[in-house]
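Chapter summary example: a protein plus magnesium ion.
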Amino acid sequence: MRPEERAAILIEGLPYIKEYAGKTVVVKYGGNAMIDEKLKQAVIEDVLLLHLVGIHVILVHGGGPDISRMLKETGRPTHFVKGLRYTDENVMEIVQMTLCGKINKDLAAMLDGKGIGLSGLDGNLFMAVPHTDQEGTDYGQVGDIVHVNPEVVFRLIEDGYIPVISSVARGAEDDRSYNINADLAASKIAAALKAKKMILLTDVKGLMRDPADESTLIESLKVSQVPALINEGVISGGMIPKVECCVEAVRQGVQSVSIQDGRIPHSILMELLSDAGIGTMFS
Ligand code: ADP
Ligand code: MG
């Protein structure tokens, strides 16, 4: 590409950069897009670029596939209850080791000396109680975040770092660690920081009327439409907590909330630096 062309392309992004400079953007990253090294590199490049133009990016991550692999390798049986990994003490040990140790530090280290990895355990960032539901189901140490102490994240941003946060929490009523759905962790931190934008990267195009048919992508929807879609069974599995987190983030004042395809390289930049949303936008 000629220098003129490169300059022209950069200048086209200027209005969007202006809109977001000095503002907070929370990106949740996990699932299969995390196993693919090329995609991982693209996510890291997007985050770094946004950081370098003055956007306050926070990267929240999960790591289900790595946790599954580590549980298998250490011979610890695991099972799922209503789509969530039942987390006993033995499983939690691996969850914490994998998320807070391996994945968190690997991602932070990729961010050019600007990444600081922390978990919800640091500075009591996330405080949780055991997750349950209307039927009183036991999920072990799967937690629901009941309190957020965002000071540590504020400080890091003020000092020019990129916080990389793993979705583990400290017990609000006991001293155990809790396994937190990373979408939930992202929405809680986005709400606490009054983020301008939250992007949940996933392994599908977005929310679809028929998950098997990409042409049924719902490009935008109002949070009031969500309960009906869940009742009709349109939204199921891991998409339920994901969409519920989007609803919560919108209600808590996060201006722009989207679910988008983490399998597309540079989808974060595509979303931020253009008018054309690429996934499902909530309002
Ligand atoms: P992540 O690792 O990104 O949190 P999840 O597996 O938890 O991914 O959630 C995304 C999954 O939700 C998709 O891979 C898809 O199988 C499922 N899903 C259920 N209903 C829908 C829907 N209506 N549209 C898109 N995906 C859906
Ligand atoms: Mg999920």
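Key point: The chain has ten helices and 13 strands.
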